[in-house]
Write a structure and sequence with these properties.
By secondary structure, the chain is α+β, with helices and mostly antiparallel strands. Helix content is 45%, strand content 27%. β2 and β3 form a beta hairpin. The chain has a four-stranded antiparallel β-sheet, with helices on one face. A three-stranded antiparallel β-sheet has the order 5-6-7, covered by helices on one side.
Length: 161
């Protein structure tokens, strides 16, 4: 019974990348870009400047590919859980592959790299000869918030001996 109580999470968070442009906005952006590119492609093709028309098509395809890649990366997730018995970090890649790391909360060290101008640039959990980066895709404000809450959770777990 006491082990079940010790395994209750003191802290649990799901981290995911923020995307400011939703699916509907993406469609509108592509429509506006197409409205800009199509007349140029037609004009240059009619006037015999087909290499420029191909360049315009390649630029549009590059814009589309960049946003598709960005939305694919948005599927990435990290689940961080802290209890008295363990810290677990589960990373889910955009392809659905799960990578798990488990640490003893009394031996784990939470390290934060900080830049004077930009704030937190990297967060990692280290211990037992391993290192796991956490929240690499978060924006600076979310990194600050997560780091504060995660440190508090570690302090809470280590206080209850």
């Amino acid at each position: 019974m006491t082990e079940a109580l010790d395994d209750r999470p003191v802290f649990s968070a799901e981290l995911f990348p923020h995307r400011s442009l939703g699916r509907k906005g993406f469609r509108i952006l592509l429509l506006l870009a197409a409205l800009g590119f199509v007349p140029n492609v037609l004009y240059f093709t009619v006037h015999g400047a087909w290499p420029i028309a191909l360049y315009c098509l390649a630029a549009f395809a590059g814009l589309y590919a960049a946003f598709r890649l960005s939305y694919r990366r948005a599927l990435e997730r990290e689940h961080v859980r802290v209890s008295r018995l363990e810290i677990s970090v589960t990373k889910v890649t955009p392809a659905g592959k799960r990578l798990e790391a488990h640490y003893n909360p009394f031996w784990a060290r939470f390290t934060v790299d900080r830049h004077q101008e930009f704030g937190i640039t990297r967060m990692a959990l280290a211990g037992e000869g391993r290192r796991t980066e956490i929240g690499a895709f978060l924006n600076p404000d979310d990194r600050e918030s997560f780091a504060r809450a995660f440190r508090q959770a570690l302090a809470t777990v280590k206080q209850r001996i």
